[in-house]
Records
---
Amino acid sequence: MNRSITILLSLGIVVVFCGLKSEKDLAVDKIPDGLRKNANVVLRYSDIILEVHSQKKATYSEEYAITILNERGLRDSYFVKYYDNADKIQRIKGTIYDKYGNKVRKL
């Protein structure tokens, strides 16, 4: 049986799930005009790490940042992760930044 976790974020501009491992400039003005044209959301970066500890244990980490450019982009601000009885979610972290790349709040 699959379960899901859904988190709706409020009107944030930049949303990052998981902690930033290195400082990234997330200011909206750093996005090239060609990427912003006719876009509702821009995926700034995405990192997936799978660490295998043994034959029975592994850790999966996902870190990404999206920039929500307008209200139509809010539909992409949901975080959904499916899991079953074989998986265990230990933590979910998120941070909301303003359009200048300044931290607004942690989730």
---
Amino acid sequence: MGMTVEKSDAARVEAWNDRYSIGQAVMYWPGKKGPEETAIYSKTRSVAGLTRSGMAVIWVEGRGGCIALSHVEAVGSLTDKFPVVGGFDSPGSGLAS
């Protein structure tokens, strides 16, 4: 029969944690994931894990709760999407001492 086998959530967590570390730049969708939905760019603040119900999740900066790992994609770096023009102490930043 033409059924595709989905990777189990435990295997998805293991694969994510083998490939990425805490601080990985990601884009995530807090609701429905799809091309018409807007992704949010952030960084992970934990390793991936399983909820008590067995769902693969991860915690990202800027969110109080976890995000389903199926709604998270790793990106090269945040500066790939948001280039840094000057540092916090650059002239004109308002933060130079």
---
Amino acid sequence: MVEATQGSCCRHCLSNRIKQSDIRDVGPVGGRRVNARPQTFYRIWCLPAVIALLSGVGLMTALLGQGGAWWVISWTALTAPLFVVARAMYVVFNR
């Protein structure tokens, strides 16, 4: 069942310290090996929840704040999702 070797594992698996016994070759997906372990609820929804929380904080501070530091907080919180989208597009287009 285990066909991955030390040198053929992808960077994602090595950075998350997944044991080699958890990886199996289930066919090429974009030229990479596929993680055989199922994704947990936390891994799937952590980043979207943080983005939603930042957007909500940014919208509330923009609506309720009277200027100064409130505007800085709102602009920072509302631009964070843009950086996440820009990074995702960069990763997709530079494969």
